[in-house]
Amino acid sequence: MRVLALDAATEACSVALLSDGDVIVRIVDSGKSSAQQILSLAEEVMAEGQVSLSMLDGIAASIGPGAFTGVRISVAVAQGLAFGAGLNVAPVTTLEALALQVLRAAPGPALACLDARMGEVYWGCFTADAARGVIESGALKVGPPAAVALHLRGPHIGIGRGFSAYPELAKIPGVEINSRDSLALPNAREFAQLGALRLARGGGLDPADLKPLYLRDKVALTEAERAAQPLQAAPRQVP
Asked: What domains sit in the chain, N to C, each tagged with a CATH number?
């Protein structure tokens, strides 16, 4: 299985090539030139792995949630490369990729959190699964940190930069997190691994059907709008 994975949804832009079990990863700080960076990184990993687009089994695409521009770049670049090479794409969320980082060593459940800005977090709960890598325990959500505690049942392993942005998350009863994991961001390595599992199970999509997952409908809300807005839930992503 050969899979190229792309992610520009957060502060780090990363690309990975999974080829016959080996993974080559490149990571740079995201910025205004993320589109150029992600294409350059893709060229680097494929050159190192001596793999061309025509040799891939598919592309794993980060669909969010995350920065609106970054999510669009991840989806658009994945679509462009897949269209050109006649490949299927496997959608993977940033929170799934985060959760896999801790679920490799523990069965979970894991609580993955990313800073959504404006006093909110993107978050979701996951358990490990041998066939699919991770399984969502309910829909992914966006909301104030205080809302997370209302939905948790039992102990969870924490992961993600949402914990460093909102330290109160680590104080939720049953949540365990170390300082390293509180700074974690999604990495294309996990996107590649989850994408490969989905492609192997026939879960690839036509690139035209790849859709971003924003969770939040507006880039900016007033304080009054945020106070009045109910907690939003995303539809489950079916591998």
From this structure: 2-93+187-216 (3.30.420.40), 94-183 (3.30.420.40)
